[in-house]
Amino acid sequence: MQTAPERKAVMLTDSQIEAFVTDGYVRVERAFPRAVADAGREILWRATGFDPHEPATWTVPVVRLADHAEEPFRHAVTAPALTEAFDQLVGPGRWIPRNSLGSWPIRFPSAESPGDDGWHIDASFPGSGDPGDYFRWRITVTSTGRALLMLFLFSDVGPDDAPTRIRIGSHLRMAKALEPHGLPGAEMIGLLDDYAATADLPETAATGAAGDVYLCHPFLVHAAQPHRGRRPKFMAQPPLGLRDPCVLDRADGAYTPLERAIRLGLGR
């Protein structure tokens, strides 16, 4: 695969890091080359079984594909601009490297509801029940197992192309909602009232160009939406793993931005 020269790693600015803490996300523009996104889409199109040149074959609003670890996806998730940002937001040595981008919800223009567009935060680990029941997976206030939610744009995403909806600052309220659940954590589905309680917050959409990546706090409330545009949307939304749970009371006060955001939500 021929790609453009790799972008030199550029550190997030102080203002970007503060925005991550207070707003819950930061957008890394051109995190990986457009040519990598183009090569990845070719693989994904073949996996959908649809013809990219024949919209009549796009018969459902969303197609879910399994994990892909081919070279374009490995290239994207290990881009220097991102690994540098991981260190800045989560801390060197505290996150688990990836070589793939997880499952893919490929969204197609459709008048049908996708059926998966409710507000939520992503869970991190299974509880004591059926591990295949993702809605019963759990989240703790120390974010056990998850450092970030990441949105990798593999196609250009405009306002009509089903961009992920984000409630700005919702991660702060969710930290407070999770605190009473302690170490066992809360089930993803058990927080529906807490998601609903963030409806008054300002909303934005994860639009951008192929190669952009949104790095989101794991407690950020977000949702899919119907696709009203013309171009299918290709986006991966993998977690970045966390080696050890966040520490919210450090004797030295050396908190990472991930931890600072949780503490801010808890009023500390």
TrEMBL record:
Q: Extract the GO molecular function terms from the UniProt entry.
A: 2-oxoglutarate-dependent dioxygenase activity
Q: Name one Pfam family in it.
A: PhyH
Q: Which domain of life is it from?
A: Bacteria
SUPFAM superfamilies registered for this protein in UniProt: Clavaminate synthase-like (SSF51197)
- Name of protein: Phytanoyl-CoA dioxygenase
Taxonomic lineage of the native organism: Bacteria, Bacillati, Actinomycetota, Actinomycetes, Mycobacteriales
